[in-house]
Design a protein that fits this description.
The protein is of the alpha/beta class. It has 3 domains: 84 residues, Arc Repressor Mutant, subunit A, CATH 1.10.10; 105 residues, D-Maltodextrin-Binding Protein, domain 2 (3-Layer(aba) Sandwich), CATH 3.40.190; 102 residues, 3-Layer(aba) Sandwich (D-Maltodextrin-Binding Protein, domain 2), CATH 3.40.190.10. 41% of the residues lie in helices and 22% in strands. The chain contains 10 helices and 12 strands. The strands form 4 sheets. The protein has a 5-stranded mixed sheet. Strands 10-7-11 form a 3-stranded antiparallel sheet. The chain has a two-stranded antiparallel ribbon with strand order 1-2. A hairpin with a 4-residue loop joins strand 1 and strand 2. Helix 2 crosses helix 3. Pfam families: HTH_1, LysR_substrate. Keywords: DNA-binding, Transcription, Transcription regulation. It comes from Dactylosporangium siamense. One of its GO terms (cellular component) is protein-DNA complex.
C-alpha cells in the first residue's frame, strides 16, 4: 500500500464516513471510495461493511488498522521532527525571569508552546536582581523577561509585556503605611534600599537620587536579591519599589510587616523582553509570540 492509501484507509477507519474523510483529506468522495475499493481488491476481501446508513470495519479492517497505526504514527512523528528542525523549532531555549509573578506568565507560555512544538525544550531560570543582563551577555540565557530600562549595545529590546503602576514597599509601622498614596516628593522623607550590581542608569531610573524639585532621596543598604530587599524593608531599614501586581492577592509577598503604598505620579514599572541581537532564532521569535499571546489571555482573564 502507498502512504496515501494508508492515510485514506486510517482516516476512514476513524471517521467511518466517506464524506467527512474526503473533506478532512481535501479529496473528492469518489477518490476515497476508489482508493478503498483498490485496496480491497489487492487484499482479496472487504475492509469495510457499508450501506446507505452506516460504515463499519470488517474483522480484516480492524486487524489492518491495528497493524498499520504504530508504523504510520512513527512516520508522522519523523516527518514532524524533520519539519520542526528545518524550521528551527527544535532544541533548547533558555529563558530568564526576574520575579516569581512574571515567571508565571512564562511558564504558561512554555506549556502552550510545548504542546505545539514538542521538540522544543523551554528551560526557565531565575535572573538575579543584582545582575539583570549578565546571563544574556555570557550566552547563558537566550531570552529574558526583565525590568526595564535596558540600554545594552549587544541586546535587542523587545516588546513591553507589562506596564504596571509603581508602589512603595514600606514597613507596616512606618507613617507612610497609613496613607492611601504618596508622591515622588515624599521620597525625600524616606530612606530607599538600593541594589548592588546593575548599571548606574538602571539604578538611577528606579531609585532616583533626588525628587523633581531637587530634594535628595536618601539611599540605604544595598541588596543583591529580592528577599534581602524585603527583609531590609520589614526591619525598617528603608523602602523599596514593587508593581501593583506584586502587591495583589495572587502575588503578594508572604513576608509579614510589609505595606504597599501607591505613588500615582511615579512612572510605571515596565517589564519587557530582551535577547542577544546576534542570537535571534526562529524558535526564539516563535516563543516571543507565544508570550505575547499568553499575555493577552492573562489580561483578558483579569
Amino acid at each position: 500500500m502507498e502512504l496515501r492509501e494508508i492515510e485514506i484507509f486510517l482516516t476512514l477507519a476513524e471517521e467511518l464516513h466517506f464524506g467527512r474523510t474526503a473533506e478532512r483529506l481535501h479529496l473528492t468522495q469518489s477518490r476515497v471510495s476508489q482508493s478503498i475499493k483498490q485496496q480491497e481488491r489487492k487484499l482479496g476481501a472487504p475492509l469495510f461493511d457499508r450501506n446507505n446508513r452506516v460504515v463499519r470495519l470488517t474483522d480484516l479492517g480492524i486487524q489492518l488498522r491495528s497493524d498499520l497505526v504504530p508504523g504510520y504514527r512513527q512516520i508522522q512523528d519523523a516527518v514532524a521532527r524533520a519539519s520542526a528542525t528545518g524550521r528551527g523549532l527544535a532544541g533548547v531555549l533558555r529563558v530568564g525571569v526576574q520575579a516569581a509573578w512574571s515567571g508565571d506568565l512564562v511558564l504558561a507560555a512554555a506549556a502552550a508552546f510545548g504542546v505545539a512544538n514538542p521538540d522544543c525544550d523551554i528551560q526557565i531560570r531565575e535572573v538575579p536582581l543584582s545582575d539583570p543582563f549578565g546571563g544574556l551577555h555570557a550566552g547563558q540565557l537566550d531570552l529574558q523577561l526583565t525590568i526595564r530600562p535596558a540600554a545594552e549595545p549587544d541586546l535587542t529590546v523587545g516588546p513591553v509585556i507589562f506596564s504596571l503602576p509603581r508602589m512603595l514597599v514600606i514597613a507596616s509601622g512606618h507613617p507612610f503605611a497609613q496613607r492611601p498614596a504618596i508622591s515622588i516628593e515624599d521620597l525625600a522623607d524616606v530612606c530607599m534600599v538600593t541594589v548592588a550590581g546593575p548599571p548606574d542608569y538602571w539604578v538611577n531610573h528606579h531609585l532616583p537620587p533626588q525628587t523633581p524639585s531637587g530634594r535628595p532621596i536618601p539611599r540605604g543598604p544595598a541588596v543583591a536579591e529580592w528577599e534581602t530587599a524585603w527583609a531590609q524593608v520589614a526591619s525598617g531599614k528603608g523602602a523599596f519599589f514593587a508593581s501593583n501586581w506584586a502587591a495583589g492577592d495572587r502575588y503578594h509577598y508572604s513576608r509579614s510587616g510589609l505595606s504597599f503604598v501607591a505613588i500615582p505620579d511615579a512612572p510605571p514599572l515596565e517589564w519587557g523582553l530582551l535577547w542577544r541581537t546576534n542570537a535571534e532564532t526562529v524558535m526564539l521569535t516563535s516563543f516571543v509570540k507565544a508570550i505575547l499571546e499568553q499575555r493577552e489571555a492573562t489580561l483578558t482573564r483579569d
